[in-house]
Amino acid sequence: MDCIFLLKICVTILFGMALGAISSIPVGAVQLVVIKKSLNHQIKPAFAVAAGSMTSDFIYGALTLFGFGGFLHLRPFQIGIYSLGILVLAYIVYRTMKERHTLVNSDEPIIYRKRYSFLKGFTIAITNPGMIVWWLVGYKLYLDLNLFEVAGAGIRAIFVISGCLGLGGYLMFVGFLVYRAKNAFPEHFVHNAYLVLTVLLCVLILYFGYKIVCIIFNYQTFL
Question: Residue 218: inside a domain, yes or no?
Fold first, then answer.
């Protein structure tokens, strides 16, 4: 295996990880949940949420780039996915408000289970079919580099895995930063942060509802 080929593989990995990290930068439901758990000194459950999101995005990436994702564009599927997303986010809003009440009125720490946290991260991410577009755009940008004459199954697999590692790595990095800085925040800041997280989650619920309406009535979306 020559050095040029290895260099191209390294570029593929770095490019995929960079795209994955960039896809995580806009504040979304998964990032909000990671931050919430990190604020409560629950770094392992926060990492579990990131791992669940990474697993979901791997599924979307594999289905999209290996040609098995035709059903992902069907209207009934997208409506069902966004509807599930509304239910999941509504439950998270309820849990967030309940946890804030506990923080304000009790000294008992909030305990999260890693298994449930992984499932929560997976469920939130799987209700975002917009990742299909991101994978297609990201892969097109990668092909524009012209590293290989033909991007075979192995190259596509490396690209998908690298993208997921970049996405999960960024979420874990954010969680770790919040976890390390939490002691520097006064208690009332954490309480107010829960309110902000709740509002942002409600905005995401409205966005999902907007997407459902646009799909049903064939409106052109600008978001």
Answer: no
